[in-house]
Write a structure and sequence with these properties.
This protein is mostly beta strands. 40% of the residues are buried. The N and C termini lie far apart (93 Å). It is globular and about 90 Å long.
Length: 368
Amino acid sequence: MWTKHNNKDPSMIKKILKIIGWIILFILLFSLWMLQRMDTFKTITNNTPEICESFVMNGSAEDIEIDYTRGIAYLSIQDREALIKGENTQGFIGKIDLNKKPYTLVSALTKQPEHLRPHGLSLYIDNADKRHLAIINHPKNRGEEPEVIDLFSETKNGMFDFVRSVSDPLFQSPNDVLLVDKEKFYVGNDKGGVSTLDKIQEQLGRPMSTVVYFDGRSASIAMDNLSSVSGINLSPDQLTVYASETNAKRIAVLKRNLMDGSLVKVKTLKLSGSPDNINVLKDGSLVVANIPKVWALIQHFIALQNNEYKPAPSQVIKIDFDDRGNHTVKELFMSEGNDMSTTSVGVIWSDKLFMGSIDDKQMYICEL
């Protein structure tokens, strides 16, 4: 007669259970860390000006540039809600004369391009007081077709004529553009990973994004090892470039070499949220759209794809500098998103705060 023996070693079972326990603990801690990193547990306290109004549009103004001399706002408009849902839509570059009320939105271009999916835009005024625009124009199939920067110059009637398109492999995932001459500009890439492993590491916080400089003929990397550049702008003296490092919740302060366009990181400004577009006022202070809860923004996009609507919080802050370069942060606007959702840009004109959004079809205007 054969006898069945239990060959399982109790000590081995304990070791296996211990390993499983450590794996579960690691997964739990990692999940909590990711949720904390996306501000999941942050409490939003509404802090909005008393007087605000909505300027309704057919698309959302992801970026807004102000011509402070003339009082004209330029807007990068696209029905991005439709894009998120996979629809094929074309964008529009609009302008608004802020000196005349009620505000009227008109085209800023003499001819509407056949293909236009605008993202970041930048305004440059040359020594002859002539205006120039640079616009990020995404292809229909991102990641498969080249990314393009379209350049425009002002005509006599205040409209803009197309000049040329610029494309380069270094324009990997352009989110914002900074025009520093009529055909010279910086491009901020919000992604840098190529392989799947790279992209995973990037989402976990590894800085792999770049700022690229185009000198009118060729492109080169002006600064690397940045963490998802979503906004870029220039100080009034043109010596300092500010770049939003969205994934790292900070703004990089970069010293600019006027000869070759290269950049050197001087310091970073830590923030409590994830910065997006940056605007610079005449006194050198910064107005920054600051994503307060990334997790809420992700939930908002998921809801849109399911033909549902869930607002995402919005925040705009102002950063002031003293004579020693120290900075202070003041909150100008904070909302749970029921009035203005997914704010991506804030600009100040005549004591008014103008806000644009990733996909909310309005410009929200508040008295400061």
